[in-house]
Structures are given as structure tokens and as C-alpha cells.
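Hi L.,

You mentioned the student needs an example of a multi-chain input paired with its predicted structure. This one should do, with 571 residues in total across all chains.
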Amino acid sequence: MSDAKIHVRQVGKTFVSEQREVQALQSIDLDIQPNEFVTFVGASGCGKSTLLRIIAGLETLSCGEILLDGEPIDGPGVDRAMVFQHYSLYPWLTVMQNIKFCRQLKVIGDTVRHDGDVESAAGRADALLNLMGLTRFADAYPSQLSGGMQQRVAIARALMPKPATLLMDEPFGALDAQTREVMHDLIRHVHRLEKSTILFVTHDVEEAIYLGSRVVLMAPRPGRIDSIYEVPLPAQRHQDMKLAPEFTELKREILARIRETSGMQTDLEQLAKLSAVAG
Amino acid sequence: MTAQISIPSAATAAQPRHTATPAAPAEQVVRKSSFWRIRGEISRRSAWLLTGAGLSLPFVIWWLWTALGLADPMFMPSPGAVLERIGRWWTSEGLLRDIGISVWRVMAGFGASALIALPLGLYIGTYRPVQAFLEPLTDFIRYMPAVAFIPLVMLWVGIDEGSKVLIIFIGTFFQMVLMVAEDVRRVPMAQIEAAQTMGANSGEIVKLVILPSAKPALLDTLRITCGWAWTYLVVAELVAANSGLGYAILKAQRYMHTDKIFAGILLIGLIGLLTDQAFRWLHRRAFPWMRK
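Structure written out for the whole complex:
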């Protein structure tokens, strides 16, 4: 038995609908160390989000086992916060009320109260607000914020109960490129500061390399792990590294592999025929 | 926590560094009126003017029709005659009492319906087993015409106030349950799952996420079904009533008092409009976060 934070062994997931069965995940093996930042990429249908949702406890697995700190996962828990792509904020609450949402829950009251003498919950909420650059918007409603700011509120809210693991399901998928860069540095900063283990699902290979210490490439039909890449970048990262040769080389390699595994290559010959007919 | 370390924020990053935008060509400045643009905006003044015109148009036509003598006053009284009739109803025929008893019946039927439909719809929309158990049944009953229940209601409940309230209840309740369930089902799954990953239990999710999230839609459902409750008033007052606006209309028919029929219909419409506006006002007051 390893001392892995998350230990995934032979995990399979089958979705059964009225007409057919879909093998979303098959024989997944993966160990994630404490404080690791692992990113997941792959063609659509490869099951990367499903794996994340199983670890979050939002889906059950069909076979195999997942151990979290040596214990099997039984439903969602306050130790694993999840950040969704969108629509997860509470529009009727202000930014500050959203961040403090977990304080109303019975289960959180106790855990946070323990180190309450060191730092009050209000203090943590203020610090998170400051960290996210949202101090001026504490009393604004989510509908008054831009998409990037809304996602920062969602991240702050997820961090509030001090989760050991942060699960992020394409959290920046709906943001524009500039905002996304800002968010990348922010989330790396959060990772250093909070010492959390982060699992990050994305369809953006550049994002996956820039953020992760390992990139897990998954392949569809059936959903499985195809390969795992160590990212040859130092822990301290900055935007210029995206232009470094080792970065672009890894990006080229991963993109090529995704194309190979997706089964959706463009048939150039076929395309040429089509344009000949059209012409 | 050391949150002092400065990080690049989108707020500063978004600030334009250069303001050297070239001047727009003149023809771009000339905007076409947005009056007939699909989903275009119109000014507040135009909106009020059009609303006023739309509301008064039928009255103007009605007034012209009768003033020109095109209609037999026996079948179509003039607006003036109807107004006069409302005055007489008020002074000597107990209009206030009729309005009072009708409002009471509608509100009692509607209130009872809401009292049961809200929790029931919440359960149907939240728990699949409850939905599977109750929704098809509710769907089935809602297609049964409320009017057809009158004989049964009279046999079972009698002919006093309870039977009138029950008719209005039957007319609104089953629709309301289904609409409430639908409102609850529309709460985004991500909102619920976010609470789950923060450790919320079922009770907390219903109380802290589903209810507040569905509230604006629920208030809208109440507004719409309240309108339906008013439409069942006349039907309800078919049951051995001797007071109320609906009863007054039915009795006026017997004596060919078309002016009173007109007056009754207009008054019910007016009360409905006022209730609707009250609900809308409450909606704006209660959910300031919906304003952009």
C-alpha cells in the first residue's frame, strides 16, 4: 500500500441508458501524491470528467476502488472541494455570502472551529477575497461580475473549508484567453499557498502543461489512461515558459497523441475529393 | 494565511493601456430606429404610450360602437351605462360585499392550494421516487374539468362556502403542483453539487440551495395560478351562491341586465390585473439580485 493521497485501482464505470451501455472508464490505475498538481486532458468522451466526479463522490464507480488517504470514497465530502465550469454560484447571495456559504453547514462548523483560535472564519473569507482580488466586490451579486470574477468567487468558495483536495472540472473553459492566463497564475499561487492536492480537467493542452506537474492523457471508447507525462518545468512558473522549447515539444507530443487516440482525424484525401466536387 | 503577496488581478489587467481608437466612420454613428428590430429596445415613454393605447383601444371601439347606435343597448350597453351600473351596484346593491366574498373565496381556494402544492411539488421535483409515484396521477387529474366536479362537490361537501372554495382548489391545485415541481427541477445541478462537495446534507441542500434558487420561479408560478383561480370564480359561484361577483353575473343574465354582466366581468378583470401587478412588485422587491 502506497502513501498516495489518492489511490485509483482498476476503476471502471459503465453508464446504462435505456438503449445501450456506455463504458465511460475502463481499468484506470493512478496514484496521486499529496500536494501534487495533476492535469487531465483527452478527446471528448475519454471520461476525464467522470473520473473527477467519481473522486468527488458525485458519481459511483462500477468496479475497482478509489482510496483517499487509505479510505474508500463514500459520497461527497468536505475534504474534496469541486470547482465547476459554470452555473455553480448562488445568484441570490453576494460574493461574500457565497464564499461563506459553507459556514452555514453543520459538517463545516466543527472542522473550521478547531483552528478558530488561530484565524477566524471571517478572517479567512477576507483573506480569500483579497487573494482573488475581489475585495471591492464583496457585496456585489454574481450577476454583476464578469465570467472571470465569477470563477474566482467559485474558487474562493471551494477553498473556504480548507479542502485537502481541490477538484477542478474545466473551470476556465468559458473564459477568454487573457483572463485565463491570469487565472493560471492565480491557481498556481493558490496551490503553493494552500498546499492542496489539485486535480484539474481541461481540454486545453497548453493549460494542462502550464499548470500540472504531471499531465494524464486519457483516450475514449472505452475511457482509459493512455499515457502520463512528467512536465519538465520548475515549480515556480511564469508565462514565458510557454514559449520554451521543452514546453512546445511536450505540447506537440501530447496534441499528436490526442489526435491519434480521438479517432477523429481529418481525412485529407476525402476532403480533397469534396472540394473537387464543390469546385 | 499570507494573502498579502500580490497577484495579477483581472481588474487591473483589463484596463486599457492605449486609448488610440480610430474615430468611427460617420455612417456607423447613424443608428436605425430599433422599433422593429427583433428583440429591440424601445424607450420607456414609447412603452407606456403603447400600453395605454393597447388597453384603451377596445374601450374606444366599444364606446364608438354604442355611441353610433350600431348595437342594441339590450345586448350591448354603452360604457357610460356600465359605469353608471357600477355606481348603483356600489351604493345600493352591495358591490363591496360581493367583491369581499369573491376575493375571500378565491384567496381561500388559492391559499389552500398553494399550502399543499408548494411542499408537494418540492418533493416531486427533488426526489425521483416521489415524482414516479405522484406525477402521472396529478397529470391525469389535471385534465379532468373542474366544472364536472360540481355535482360531486355538492353531494360530498354540501352547498355552503366550503364547496365554492373546493371548486377553486380543484381548478388550481393540480396545475400548481406540476408547475412547482418543474420550477424545482430547473435548479441547476451545479448549484446542488457544489453544496454537496462542501459537505451539505439533503436537508441543507433543500433549505439552502433548492428553495432559495427556485423562489423567483415559484413566485411567478403563484402569480400565474392566482390568475387561474379567478377564472374559476364564476364556476364556483354556480354552486348555490347568493353573493359574489360571479353570482351577480349569473343572476344578471336571468334578468337580461347586460350592463351588470359587463360590470362584473370588468371588475373581475380589474381585480386580476391588480393582483398580478402586486405579485410583480413583490418579485422586484424580493429578488434584487436578479437585476443586472
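You could point out the following to them. The mean pLDDT of chain B is 88. The interface with chain A takes residues 1-5, 7-11, 13-14, 188, 190-191, 193-201, 204, 208-209, 212-213, 215, 287-292 of chain B (CB under 8 Å).

Best wishes,
N.
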